[in-house]
Amino acid sequence: MPKIVDKDAKRKEILRAAMRVFAEKGVTETKMADVARAAGIGKGTIYEYFQSREQLFQSAFEYLLRKIKAMMVSQIDESLSPPEKIRTGFLAYLDVTTMQIEDFAEILLDFWAYAIRNKDNADNITLDIRNRYQEFRDLTIPILEEGIQKGIFKPHNTEFVASAIIAAGDGLLLQWMADKHHFDLKATAETILNIILEGITNHSNDD
Hints:
Layout: H1 7-25, H2 32-39, H3 43-46, H4 53-75, H5 82-100, H6 104-117, H7 126-149, H8 158-178, H9 185-200
Helix pairs in contact: 1-2, 1-4, 4-5, 4-7, 5-7, 5-8, 5-9, 7-8, 8-9
């Protein structure tokens, strides 16, 4: 009998191989043949799963985002207060991108650069990056709304604040990538969190 191939498992295996090649060669220098070789399959076989290099890039980017979001969500316990949820999610994002997924930060930056260079291509990953930011806003906004409803946070535009929190995380990530040995990521992250949370905390009930 012919061997039954688990298509979904094989697809994930190819994506994991792509991550390794991206880390070694960079996104723009990666060819389908490189990924096929890393996955231990023939060049023709990879096209059974991904019709083009662009589709492979999109799928790999989505794969990374699913992993990071799942890891973040797993850390945000519903029993935590809104400020604790913000703090936990923010620190989990930095932990996942700098520690738990090897070379994630470098690969992510490569994807950003690739999307900017190919922004006029209708099939590029720019839309996936936009969706990424919207997904993280959608994760953050309900926490901010919960804080407002409970009187912990001052009323504010939750979409703007969610965007600011995400931008702060990305900014820290870029600085850390530029100087990994001297930039104190954790201490700086705690400082930014304190500033953000202080800015939205409702102190009217302190007296």
